[in-house]
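Let us work through a complete example step by step.
Step 1: write down the sequence.
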Amino acid sequence: MSDAQTIMTQPLIQPSALNREPVSPILKWAGGKTRLMPELLARLPESWDAYYEPFVGGGALFFRMGPDQARISDLNYELVNVYTVTRDRVNALIAALKGLEYNRDTYYGMRALDPETLDPVARAARMIYLNRTCFNGLYRVNRRGQFNVPMGRYRDPVICQTDRLLKASVRLQQTDILHAGYADAVADATEGDFVYFDPPYQPLTSTANFTSYTAGAFDEDDQAVLAKTFTELGERGVRCMLSNSDTPLIRDLYSEHHIDRVMAPRAISRKATGRAAVAEVIVRNYEP
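Step 2: predict the structure and record it as tokens.
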């Protein structure tokens, strides 16, 4: 599979008025933007043509906005497959999820499966099941790309959120879903388009690195290359907004752009005391 590949199949559901309603994300995601949503919505450009969201993760802003023309992308193939199957085969996905139980044997049995041996629906169901039942909803892989998060402690987790999946399927109907790095995903963005970047955050400390969503990492050099892409897009008339940690490096990389400091809660710490609000930045290359 190439680094930039659109997964194309026939849509199962046609667009409807439902596409205008806010839709909740279908996955829990470390660094998800649901809590930051008011700050993001307040800083959107007045208008745009196509919407791009590389590093889509849980896709909170995409699902909230419901753009008419959109492309979402990620290097995490499991994530891309979930969105593709939700768009194109949501009924089969719901049926697969309804057959799964929450217990230790099922959890570790699902975790042990090699996703590459599964058909797309079973692969998406595995991803959603693990997401709903693992510790803290955290997605983490080891250097071999194997999911290694232990089972969470829940009383009765809802594994199949039927209504949410159906609404998400409608929202995804007019969306290109790309398995690609951010540079490939936004390569054809043109003047008037809008790109929202939510990359792996620059760690606040040496022990606070939650960037293992794929087998690779996202280091300071990667942050610098992204900042260059951000600037280049602006030079050709593409409006861009980015979220990241409020660190000296990030402020330096985006010093020529508009930077707003906001407070956002973190929900990925093992201890509740580590989930207090922390400073983040929202960067824009267009006028506030």
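Step 3: interpret the result. The longest helix spans residues 220-235.
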